[in-house]
Amino acid sequence: MDILDNLKMAVSALLANKLRSSLTMLGITIGNASVIGMVAIGQGAQKLAAEQFQALGPNVLFVSLTSARVRRTASAKAKPLLLEDAQAIARLVPTVAEVAPEIQANQLIAKGKQMFNSPIIGTTGEFLRVRNHQLVQGRFINEVDNKRMNRVVVLGPEISQRLFPEENPIGQQVRIKNISFEVIGILAPKGSLFDSNQDNKAIVPLTTALYQLTGRTSPHGIPVTLISILAKNQESVKGAEFQIKNLLHLLHPTTADDDILISSQNAILETADETNEGLTRMLAAIASVSLLVGGIGVMNIMLVSVTERTQEIGLRKALGATQKDILLQFLIEAVLLAILGGLIGVGVGVGGVTIASMVSSLATSISIPSIVISLSVSGGIGLFFGVFPAKRAAQLNPIIALRSS
């Protein structure tokens, strides 16, 4: 008997017990749908992280002091990260295109009776290009604003919407730490980067932030929280890291090698990708347990089927069917159950992921390899868990099988 005849007989046997076959496939269906969904969410998270880092700005480096160095700076009056360091990097490091020193703090920002806490960034005009921001209205902070310590502010779109929902914010006054600032510009929306909302911030001149908002002082110069740096191109990022670290060691002779933290966009993205990939594998592994449970269900049902069909098996053997024919028939039934359940599961998984991405902000990405692997695993599970019932059926003595009926 050829495979086609066995396939027809397997389909007939499955259709003869539609409810039982459907319930058997349910475990495989749930397993496949879970795997597709978990992998889609994980890969969507990776894609979202990559997009967010690209929006952060190309070839960006962030220079700061480690927490241990910050504690020593506060306690021993050691030299902090300074505005002069940023200026030296811009002047002496050839692989650097732009440098934007930053002073970061949280302050109360208010207009009328509206008041809330918001991140305040004191910086220079280079910040706009280094951080890859765009303006939708007005202008950005310039060198004159920093020289004169002007009380001007550029608002993120979220703050602008909260303070000025129905009016043009340009030229309006807001209060930061109970000091009036004129709104001169509005940033374009940029979204969130992990737990940091890029649209919820107010930007003021660095000197204004230093002397009028934070009051941070140092006998060594103007202290800054962070230095954002734009390398000239992708190829110069590694060279820029090396040159910046060497320069800072010259400017801060007492600084240990691990005190200076230089983070690149690529390094952060690689870390995020590794984390997301590990999480995706873990979720897929957990979801795969459903496939294993479904496979056990297939084996149980096939064992029941063998018991119920002993007369049929004995009759086929009496008519000349070999052990190989019987084995092949029951194997085909088991694999068919698993593959059909897998196909339905893929459909449910893809449909669920598509609907979820349409009705929510959930980031998802359908993975063709995960679909192929899921279906292959389903078929393999059907084959693996179908071997024992099929061998049991093939080894039945035809005389005993006919008498047992």
From TrEMBL:
The record places domain MacB-like periplasmic core at 21-246
- Cellular component per GO, a single term: plasma membrane
Q: Give the residue spans that cross the bilayer.
A: 282-306, 327-360, 366-388
Q: Would the keyword Ion transport turn up in this protein's UniProt record?
A: no
For molecular function, the Gene Ontology terms on record are:
transmembrane transporter activity
* InterPro entries on file: ABC3_permease_C, MacB_PCD, Macrolide_Exporter_MacB
Q: What is the name of the protein in this document?
A: ABC transporter permease protein
The species this protein belongs to is Aphanothece sacrum FPU1
